Amino acid sequence: MSKEYETVIGLEVHVELATKTKIFCSCSTEFGGKPNSHTCPVCTGMPGSLPVLNKQVVEYAMAVGIATNCEITRHNKFDRKNYFYPDNPQNYQISQLYLPICRNGGIEIETEYGKKTIGIHEIHMEEDAGKLVHDEWEDVSVVDFNRSGVPLIEIVSEPDMRSADEVIAYLDKLRLIIQYLGASDCKLNEGSMRADVNLSIREVGAPEFGTRTEMKNLNSFRAIARAIEGERARQIDLIESGEKVVQETRRWDDNKETSHAMRSKEDAQDYRYFPEPDLVPVVIDDDWIARVKARQPQMRTEKMARYQEEFGLPAYDAEILTGDKKLADLFEAATEICHKPKKVSNWLMVETMRLLKDNNMDPDQITFSPVNLAKIVNLADAGAVTNTVAKEVFELVFKEDIDPERYVEEKGLKTVNDEGLLRTTIEQIIKDNPQSVEDYHNGKEKAIGFLVGQTMKAMKGKANPGMVNQIIKELLS
Amino acid sequence: MDLMSLTATELGRKIKAKEVSVTEAVTAALEAIEKRESMVHSFVTVDKEGALSCAKEVQRKIDDGTLSGPLAGVPAAVKDNMCTKGLLTTCSSKILSNFMPTYTASAVLNLKEAGMVVIGKTNMDEFAMGSTTETSAYGVTKNPWNTEHVPGGSSGGSCAAVAAEECSVALGSDTGGSIRQPSSFCGVTGLKPTYGTVSRYGLIAYGSSLDQIGPVAKDVTDCAALLEAIASYDSKDSTSIRRESYHFTEALVDDVKGLKIGIPRDYFGAGLDEDVRAAVLAAAKALEEKGAIVEEFDLGLVEYAIPAYYIIACAEASSNLARFDGVKYGYRTTDYEGLHNMYKKSRSEGFGAEVKRRIMLGSFVLSSGYYDAYYLKALRTKALIKQEFDKAFAKYDVILGPAAPTTAPKIGQSLGDPIKMYLGDIYTISVNLAGLPGISLPCGTDRAGLPIGLQLIGDCFKENNIIRAAYAYERTRAYEHSPVAR
């Protein structure tokens, strides 16, 4: 008889914070600079250099902690984690082991099986390492320290998740919270959000947890879901065949859909943690917490309610728009300009979504400005351009963020409302299409559509469709 | 006139009065170095060209009035663990034999801003680990009072250079007595300031929570003036403290009436040389005669200072020195297979025996399972030692004792027995653990003619108490030039 197994999952999520400068020096955190162009004696581990804490890092960490219902540690310290690796210029990482900034929190997730709270064990602040670049051709490795010292928070969950669905729901919620706070852009593919999955299995009803493994190198939600399924199956296979799960760190290969062991617990390093003597403790008082709380932006649920009450959006629109920080920001900014919330919502939910899907893009890759979105809404709403023209122009707004007003002006795309011109054109069309006129008089209402089409064609699509219809009917009656 | 036999303040005054040019002063130092280096070997690097060109610039600034401080134009030496941009900085280690810093330490910048001219980098125990300057990878420095003896350490080069009159003043660093003990051995005056007074930015760390840069000079006046020049709040050093006052020269008054001086009985127990005891107690007597109130007391916990110190300092050092791995700068072994072999060989070949011993000791006390028993316990001991001093300073303004239990040992006698060498730090180490200021100044010589140092310890931020007491005592005796300088 086959046994039933339960999967037990906890996550360690690293998030790169959106500070302008690094955690312990004033170098830029900008992504993608020339190698080693954003470096100084501090983030390259030069002898004699000393770290100075960027207060913004503490504020972001506090903000995330508050939003995830954590207790904030009042007396914070940093610790050194000692290990040798060339991407780590000091051969120690400044992190928090003994007194992490946030503890004992949790967030509520929702899956098809209902609501559930996932506990957050702790959130701590630390510095990122540099990047090793292996030159296979020259057979050398070089180091780029641009990322060295970029601030990170590590969010450690409790082992509260039981399925890939719950993991995705948790990550989704976490990402949204952090994006709303502006603490990070949380891009898995660029590494500004990285999740390691700790997973074990046990027979349903067993009191103890099984031996867990830690899975690294998960660069997308899809990879995370597949890695969880894969690791669950691997552990069940081991147990069913009478073998034991070894506590180890494994690396997921998403192309091969399989993982391999990186290191086992036996060769786990002793990091020789001790308090960082170059930094003084960070004391957080009630005032500071209150200030951060006061600056806390609206979270999704509150925002959804506001969109329905203040802007009169249907619940469906509010849910979609608030589901992504970028969409919500665009919606609010464009509405602020044109005061047509439902119209803005339509452009985002229909045309924008369609273009995102066609181009295989995520909302956070949107480049057009709220100003130009508002202009499109206004042009279409005022009937200044036809719907067809508006959609065409919006494609250009989506691609290149052009100014739609100027474009419509320059290309002469404005709807023609000149009755005289329309009348002359239609008279000519009627003259040229006696068959259609006859059909119409014989009761074929459809024939009028052909005449409208011909008129629009002659006017290059710019004719006011309402006026065209009206003039044709009048001339044929 | 021998310009180098003057104190820095005297020389600075002559420069200001245009009796002496900065170039003349710097040339005098360079000539003294040429003449005496073969006897003492105080320097790892002498920057002749840089010093001479800097001299001209300083002269220009003195002439146009930009520089008017008391030490402007004075030749100074810097311990080789402080980064100097474009000037070799080795920590007297093979592993930094080729290290050219890209920036200058804040304390050295302050020194330059005050118009002092850096003439070179002084020898030291490798990474400041040692009490004799014998662990240097670049040869031992000799004591200018008797070249068969060590100058002490780890700032042995700085103290010997001042005693040999190869420079007017020098910067040292003090983690467990590294300014005060060699000052005592070389018959010069050295001060370790309150932790946080002088920026550590650019000081290559040994024990970060204990390291402090301080002045080495011929007398108390120079020491106070140099401290005034280098001390400053520095936003680049998180442990730097914004002090209420940096006017250390204000304390240069010959008046100790009513000053309460405590002598810890625990500093005069077994192991203390008889000549040292006599000289230090005579100094206490001299201060009493000038109106100070002197009494004996029990300090307590003195015997725990050495183990606590060696655990904390070595633990921090084991991590601080991890960055020297042959990857980014410094020495890399020539022949290796793969990353780990490169690390291992570069560090095995680059570090000396004492440094390796302390890295291993530090790694051990931090390893999992031992952390609580050693490191955490040492931190608690440190806090208790501070409490002992707090109690003492509730009663006294100044604590008086010897700087070291003996005078300078002969070269070659110390390294064979590291524990004995560590025990020699007994009077200086607790001052670092408690973050206090301490000064060592000459108070006579022993039967062999070697200098004896008097140590005065003050409460945190009370440098002015020890400067005042030291100044008053100093007025009771004449400065003795070392035989090499005579």
List the helices and strands and how they pair.
The complex is a heterodimer of chains A (477) and B (486).
Chain A: E1 5-16, H1 55-67, E2 71-72, E3 75-76, E4 79-82, E5 92-95, E6 102-111, E7 114-127, E8 131-135, E9 140-144, E10 151-157, H2 164-181, E11 193-203, E12 213-216, H3 221-240, E13 248-253, E14 258-264, E15 274-275, E16 282-283, H4 286-295, H5 300-311, H6 315-322, H7 325-338, H8 341-358, H9 370-381, H10 387-400, H11 404-410, H12 419-432, H13 434-441, H14 447-458, H15 465-476
Helix pairs in contact in A: 2-3, 5-6, 7-8, 7-9, 9-10, 12-14, 12-15, 13-14, 14-15
Chain B: H1 8-16, H2 22-40, E1 43-46, H3 48-63, E2 75-79, H4 106-113, E3 117-122, H5 156-163, E4 169-174, H6 180-186, E5 189-192, E6 212-217, H7 220-230, E7 260-264, H8 274-289, E8 293-297, H9 302-320, H10 338-350, H11 353-366, H12 372-395, E9 398-402, H13 418-423, H14 426-433, E10 438-445, E11 451-458, H15 463-474
Helix pairs in contact in B: 2-3, 9-11, 9-12, 9-14
